[in-house]
Amino acid sequence: MRKILFFFILICFAGCDIPSTDTAVFSFLEIDHMELMPTENQGANTSAFTDVWMFQDGRSSGVYELPRKIPVVNNGSVSGSIQAGIRDNGINSSPRIYPFVDTYNFNLTPDEGEVIPLLPIFKYLETTNFRLVDDFNGAHQFGFDEDGVDSIRIEITDEGEGLIKLQPGELIQEATALVFNEIPQDGSPVYLEIDYKGNLDLDLGLIGITGESVFKDYFVSLRSENTWKKAYINFTDLIIASGFDGYQIVIGADNSINTTEAKIYIDNIKLLHF
Questions:
Q1: CB–CB of 51/65 below 8 Å?
Q2: DSSP state letter for 15
Q3: pTM of the full predicted structure?
Q4: Distance between CA 97 and CA 49 in Å, rounded?
Q5: Alpha-carbon distance 16 to 39, whole Å?
Q6: 8 Å CB contact between 173 and 146
Q7: pLDDT in tens, 20-51
Q8: How far apart are CA 123 and CA 188, in angstroms?
Q9: Contacts (Cβ under 8 Å, ≥6 apart) of 23
Q10: Which residues of 195-217 are buried (b: 16+ CB within 10 A; e: fewer)?
Q11: What tens digit of pLDDT does each residue of 50-81 get?
């Protein structure tokens, strides 16, 4: 599973009653990673759930970066729920509960001090609207040439991945041919999922369209990575602020100041909202 590792972060919300270690009995959940189980037409199962948001008795008991042994109160049994945490826009300091997957519930009967391995598996919520699912198997949706250079396009590899290949001095701007209308602008979350790797930064953004008015905003630049990573791009605030009738997803990269060939691989792009 492709995943991103980040520094440890622990959050305990104000108002939580933390049991006294003198009276409470603890066991431990050992969670190395968490997984996604999509259904048909929901795309690949790649995920980057980096954090466990833990709840017991309806209250937060902390947020833990994985892998981690998590202490849980044992009152003869151990029950609670876990929500999957991500990092918005690939930024370490932006932990969020991913809004499009369900809650993982557990009810266990461990001994005092026992360490129980646990693999939380999440499914997309039934209310999730999949506006784009592009797995680059045979074709892709980024057919709008925004840079005006027809010879530089997103290719498809034999492995079914998107490939951006740029010589020194070249750049690329490619957008979805489809304009996505009726994107919620009431604060409801709008996210783009993408898997990527390469030796050049990857820019992601939106082209907004209303009548003859058009704007383009490269909202996020993802750092080059030698191994596959997954990013969750939060377009919610940008869509609220811009308020256009329709949007295209735009991908860009600029190799104009480098002296060597650049390659960026992309895969499993999803546009999600409720």
A1: yes
A2: T
A3: 0.90
A4: 9
A5: 36
A6: yes
A7: 555 689 999 999 999 999 999 999 999 999 99
A8: 19
A9: none
A10: bbbbebbbbbbbbbbeeeeeeee
A11: 999 999 988 999 999 999 999 999 999 999 99
